[in-house]
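Open question from group meeting: does this chain pack into something compact, or does most of it stay loose? Before anyone orders reagents, we agreed to write out a predicted structure and look at it together. Recording both the input and the output here so the notebook holds the full record.
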Amino acid sequence: MITDPRGLLRRMFDAAREAADPAHCVPPHLPSPPAGRTVVVGAGKAAASMAKTVEAHWPRPLSGTVVTRYGHGLPCRQIEVVEAAHPVPDEAGRRAAARILEQVQGLGPDDLVICLISGGGSALLSLPGPGLTLADKQAVNKASASISRPSRADGSRQRRHRPA
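Structure tokens returned:
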């Protein structure tokens, strides 16, 4: 019998949050430094915190750019952190995507790219392909966001009316 359900839920939440914290989960997965350059790129709501963690644990110089949602930026010493719009992409995200593409051009077999992707990365890293514009991508994201989804109450009502 659980005597402290609130305490149990709090401990479970804290354990889940710690397991997902970049400071905890990124370092064990970092590779050995290469003979050449290390470039860090990435996108997502946790991109800045992951970049900061890479910087803290990387033994050599590195460079790169990550893009995160407005309000989620963190100061980094070597990695540029760009804030952009989410879920509807904006010009800041488009510029960051172009910058990231430039930074990985010309890398060779002795170089390493560390790519940090978290939730929201696809909206934050919008670089329209040939024949598309940023406005096209914005329209698609706006339309996707406006699609009606059943509320939790509707889902409960639907479950009650299903045969067992």
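Observations to bring back to the group:
Confidence is low (pLDDT under 50) at residues 154-164.
The longest strand covers residues 63-69.
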